[in-house]
Enoyl-CoA hydratase-related protein (Paraburkholderia phymatum), 273 residues
Amino acid sequence: MSTYPNDAGSLVESSVDDGVLMLTLNSPSDGNALNVAMTEALSDALEQVNDRRDVHCVLLRSSSRHFCTGGNVKDMQSGSDLMSGGVEDVHDRLIRSLHRITRAMSGLDVPSVCAVNGAAVGAGCDLALMCDIRMASTKAVFAESFLRLGLVSGIGGSWFLTRIVGYAKALELTLTSEFIDAETALGLGIVSKVVPEDALDIEARSLATHIAQNPPTAQRMAKRLVRKAADASLSTTLELAAGLQAILLCGHEHKEAVGRFMEQQATKKRTHM
């Protein structure tokens, strides 16, 4: 296992093991609130990923009982941190600071897995939605809770939520600010699996490690194809698929994978003779 340097300190702990970059939100005293310091720490870590050929999957998790409780309400009341200054100041700070996370998460070339324990509310819910795959413990709760504080999602959560649950349900969750439990989130497709709290880390790491074992170039291209296909026409998707497939068919990863497959088949045949 190797550790990632993190100039922002320990707000986001990071390490690489078996191709999995584990990023751990580590500010339990404020529920891993997305203040300027946490935003910068997480953005710094995420923005390194695409240039790291030893990273094949990102696992985002928390060291505390909550995943991320969103913005800090005390800062909102005092008008400090992200909320300090006038409208233009806050607008500029949101784009330069908070939106760094959104751009970095949505721009990841490698797959991302999120392990949600406890609360993932407000911007914390949006952060989880930015990941490709989400797994939750039985104690996880989710909420697009912005209207409770007279706000909207300022980090782009509406874009991700609508694509996951559909327009009508996204609007319902937004307008009601309803808190939903893990099983409800599973039924809506927000998470793909719910596990006991003490098994969350094991299950999430197992999934991330399994994903990380794929041929790295092909995996990055596979994610790119699926991501583009979500918004592109069939003709555009076919053109992209043909281009990516041609590159891979001529590459060493494909040839090595075919060789392994043929050897496995030969071994099975010899075993059953």
